[in-house]
Amino acid sequence: MRRDHWRRRNDSLDPTRDFVEIYFNVVAHEFPWDMSQSLGFALFRTYAVPGIGNLLDRTGEFTERTQKRYDDTALLLDPPTRLGFDHPQARDAIRRINQMHRAYDIPDHEFAYVLSTFVVVPKRWLDAYGKRPLTRREVVASVEYYRTLGRHMGIKQIPETYEAFEELMDSYEAEHFAFDAGGRRVADATLDLLVSFQPRLLARPMDLFSRSLMDAPLLEAFRYVAPPAPVVALSRGLLAARGRLLRLFPARRKPVELADLPQIKSYPDGYEVTALGSFPVPGVGACPVRHAVADEPA
């Protein structure tokens, strides 16, 4: 296969019609590691919004069961990408996501913000560190993919273009990023988990490396100490060099399966999509307040 096979394939498709296939090619064939890292950082940014970070801290899911929550989030978001939104497993996954969200009084603007990070952060990551940036068709397909996911989740006022998603994310963060002790605990627990994926000797370097990829507003919101400028330059330079090196490799034939990744550890014997996630118990870390999120995928 030619090195540019997946770019050529995606550019031959219609991003408004074939957006699931295009997005799957981006995630599973062309940029599996980059998309995994960038989507992880996208979620990480949301903890710096006190309304989001504090709620996640109060549920205990991200601080007491960090590995399971990491696994469940990834596995629930995977079926629509892999199978399409009409597949029964994808519908089950989205239904499970909606059931979890309905246990809490989450405002629509927070849902829309989280959705914007899934669109914007991966593009910016690939612009800076990927073997190539996304093509315009791939960007449009990503927008269509997450607009569809947002509609299935009952989110209102979803942006229609990448530029509108970008404006939403940047303006929302400028207005809402702030320190919250609960959000900091969630961020610390998540960083500890990511560091645990590496050999123990690399724990300190990985912590520095992770903070080197954070921008100033994010560091300030968590009250993290910024690494020295040479460490930041080295960390980002190594990632960019990795991207340039990958340009020499042939296209990936076999897609990367999320459930087979070593970071996913909670279900060695398999799992059922309908059993993933949290099931709030009345009076135990849950606020059973209904809000406007769809029961069923649209």
Could you characterize the architecture of this molecule?
- Helices cover 62% and strands 0% of the residues.
- It has 298 residues and is an all-alpha fold.
- The protein has one domain.
- It is globular.
- The protein has 14 helices and no strands.
Keywords:
14 helices; mainly alpha; 62% helix; 298 residues
Strand fraction: under 5%
Low-confidence regions: 283-298
Number of helices: 14
Largest sheet: none
In terms of quaternary structure, the protein is single chain
Shape: globular
Helix content: 55-70%
Order of helices and strands: HHHHHHHHHHHHHH
Number of domains: 1
| Structural class by SSE content | mainly alpha
How many beta-strand segments? 0
End-to-end C-alpha gap: 38 Å
Rounded to the nearest angstrom, the radius of gyration is 19 Å
| Average of pLDDT | 90
Topology of helices and strands:
Elements: H1 5-11, H2 19-30, H3 32-46, H4 50-59, H5 61-64, H6 66-83, H7 88-101, H8 108-129, H9 136-152, H10 162-176, H11 181-196, H12 203-212, H13 216-222, H14 229-246
Helix pairs in contact: 1-2, 2-3, 2-6, 2-9, 3-8, 4-11, 6-7, 8-9, 8-10, 11-12, 12-14
Task: Briefly say what this structure is.
By secondary structure, this protein is mainly α.
